[in-house]
Amino acid sequence: MSAYSELANHFERASALSNAIGILQWDSDTMMPKGAVGTRAESLAYLRVAHHGLVTDPRIGDWLEAAGSDTALGAWEQANVREIRRIWTVDTALPADLVEASSKAISACEMTWRQARADADFATLLPYLHEVLRLQREIGTAKGEKLGLSPYDALLNDYEPGGRSARIDALFAELADFLPGFTDEVIAIQAGRGPVVAPDGPFPVEAQRALGLSMMAVLGFDFDRGRLDVSAHPFCGGADNDVRITTRYDQEDFARALMGVMHETGHALYEQGRPQTFLHQPVGQARSMSVHESQSLLMEMQACRSREFLTFAAPQMREAFGRSGPAWEADALLRHYTKVERGFIRVEADEVTYPAHIILRYRLEKALIGDEMPLSEMPSAWNAMMRELLGITPPNDRLGCLQDIHWPSGGWGYFPTYTLGAMTAAQVFDAAKRADADVLPGIARGDFGPLVRWLRANIHGQGSLYETDELLTRATGRPLDASVFISHLRRRYAEG
Amino acid sequence: MSAYSELANHFERASALSNAIGILQWDSDTMMPKGAVGTRAESLAYLRVAHHGLVTDPRIGDWLEAAGSDTALGAWEQANVREIRRIWTVDTALPADLVEASSKAISACEMTWRQARADADFATLLPYLHEVLRLQREIGTAKGEKLGLSPYDALLNDYEPGGRSARIDALFAELADFLPGFTDEVIAIQAGRGPVVAPDGPFPVEAQRALGLSMMAVLGFDFDRGRLDVSAHPFCGGADNDVRITTRYDQEDFARALMGVMHETGHALYEQGRPQTFLHQPVGQARSMSVHESQSLLMEMQACRSREFLTFAAPQMREAFGRSGPAWEADALLRHYTKVERGFIRVEADEVTYPAHIILRYRLEKALIGDEMPLSEMPSAWNAMMRELLGITPPNDRLGCLQDIHWPSGGWGYFPTYTLGAMTAAQVFDAAKRADADVLPGIARGDFGPLVRWLRANIHGQGSLYETDELLTRATGRPLDASVFISHLRRRYAEG
């Protein structure tokens, strides 16, 4: 057997494990009775250790060396070797005791965080978060040494392969220049139009679910290879050809679940559109977190908060709930779903103010990993940056630096991918509309075929064949820049 | 670490895998979209191979030898060593190529069987079933050589540790003597009482589910450690502290789902009542298939088809569906749920005629494994025995020897445990009633506490501490005999 075949077989086996983990993780969040938490933790820990053992198998190093000089490999196989090398380099960078210490510190910190957030008590969290931060820095340093990257860039690289903070600094600087003034402008414009009338509830959960399922079908979700369920925190998970998205229903506001479902459906379409031939291989995986988020935001923000989509969807919404009236007209719905407001909470933020929440977190986590500020000063730095970027000051840390689980759970380097994703979404949607003049008219008549076909060909079906920059250049004509996103915001919020 | 601790740790790890397999299997039957079938098969195959590798680890042999002479072990630990030795002896008896050949033959045979059953076409199935049988005989021979058992007893031993066909022959002979005449008698008695009025539907699925959940709670199901869902074939599965039962709803006949739920709840109470200290160890598992089936039949047949239970349940049923009338009185429900009829299909059979279906299958499979009759003659032997035991002749093999998946799927030696379970259920329920005079009155007022407490102490909480005979002798005063079951049938059907 060739070295390449050995690698492919080996990672095929690893995918059998990661698919099992994906379903068990989904089950933990949707179906599992609470008394099973201990049993499940043992199963997941066992499978994760087994998976880590597989992808750090010392034979992989030899196979990679031999496969690297195999001139008979095609482009996909070569890219697969590159992706396997990427995984192997990172996963073998860490000594086992560092992995274990980090895992324990995260468990303790997460547990403390839940109470600390409820109590708005940063002081109690501080020593736990300090330990997580210290170990994240150590992990970043170990990986960075193997990759020739700074500790922060090495952490970022896990979520955004090839992503570099120097580049993000520039992109985010452009947004940080533009957004504070623009937010003032939009809020003034929207205030000038008078109050927004919103559909008022209650909206029965069954009707919300039926509407969500029917809209998933409109967007092109393949129900033979996926499901919709309920969880406390919506996500897209599952396994290869088994893509499971979740939502949660608010009886007073159906759009919260519905827009969430559209968002997760964007993620799901990416997963369902990955190349079947390499579905279980590293090269067949989604390219990066920013590209993944671009697909969810493309659906939720670009496509489904558009006048075209709401023109199509308004009658469906009225029918789903047996309601009508001024609040149920497409124009009113559009105003409602594009309302801009300054708020403290990231996950409740609109499209215009969201990047401020991200830029703030990005700048802080980079400084903290880089040891440029003490963790104890983080809450005041957070609040100062909220004032600078959004003009508001959190009254306490529950509404400030304690709101997200990312840092307590060891997700350092993840935050920037949200806003990179928003920018990518704008650029990709713009390219799709330019490539096929029927994309927008299709959405207006509830036909997402033109859009999804283009995404399949240019993004989903490409898996990890190219690095992110090349993927984006091939699909949109250039690497990521901030201008298309800024134009989109101008058009929708200042000129629309 | 002591040899015993090594064994216990090793099997604790194995349970992490088997619990993962249990949940993935449950998911396959309840939640999984059909397009995921290939991905899931790969995950399950991987985990099963890994599990087999763990429980056949050569170090186990050394640990067993050392632990066998460890005089410091308590009774539970000694029994755990005995159970581990049992597993290890059986699982290491088979060469890998035999396991693989059998697994492939079963896959091919199952697939052919689905169509052959639909077509009532035994001839097409014959060569596939012949191969499965041949390999089952080979497996039984290999295991039998290590255990000092005949090939059939070695297969039986996998489901019923310590079970022997000589003993079953005698028990079943007693039933086969009694039942044909008794069936005639009961059918005549029931006919003399005039027609049974049954509640007529439709019965909405949501109301059926709510009633099922409320009755599960009455029986003592712990919803913090389990769930109820829907599947094509009802089962009790899941994992430690995560017991998942299923049912299917018939809009025209709510009792089908309800009695199925009571049946699976009986299994679930056993699983939820296993000793927590040894939950993940072999000694903490359910004793055998016949004891497991005794717990489901005790709930479904002994407790829930009783006048006491139906007196309690009738008002709840009326309220669940907002219905009333003569068919909804306890007496009418009791007549409906204890109606005896001769039929071709095992899974639709009542308590009186069910054993005939089992005795027939048991005698046939024993003769086939023992190479005492050619497989090609099985259909005519089946039909002859149906005439002898039940007095009816299947018009085709779909209603005859093609109806069950057990043989095509390699489940040889399993069938007798159903009727051993029915007899055990009668004997255990009888002992519980004698031990606590409040068992029946409790059921009549919807309080299963007295019954379940006795079962917890005498059956569920005992795990595999004792061999089946000793478990039953301790709980009921003697090993299994047929007389209590026969008395129960007489009392309920001829004297009731």
Structure characterization notes:
Two copies of one chain form a homodimer. Chain A has 20 helices and three strands. With 496 residues, chain A is mainly alpha-helical. Chain A has a domain at 1-92. A three-stranded mixed beta sheet of chain A has the order 1-3-2. Chain A starts with a helix and ends with a helix.
| SSE sequence of chain A, one letter per element | HHHHHHHHHEEEHHHHHHHHHHH
Largest Cβ-defined interface: A-B, 37 and 36 residues
Q: Nearest-angstrom radius of gyration of chain A? A: 23 Å
Taken from the alpha-carbon principal axes, the silhouette of chain A is globular
- Order of the strands making up the biggest sheet of chain A: 1-3-2
Beta-strand residue percentage of chain A:
under 5%
Strand segment count of chain A? 3
In DSSP terms, counting alpha (H) and pi (I) runs of 4 or more, how many helices of chain A? 20
Quickly give the structural class of chain A.
mainly alpha
Q: What are the segments of chain A in which pLDDT stays under 50 over at least 5 consecutive residues? A: none
> What about the largest sheet of chain A?
3 strands, mixed
User: What oligomeric state best describes the polypeptide chains here?
Assistant: homodimer
**Approximate helicity band of chain A:** 55-70%
Distance between the termini of chain A: 61 Å
What integer is the average pLDDT of chain A? 96
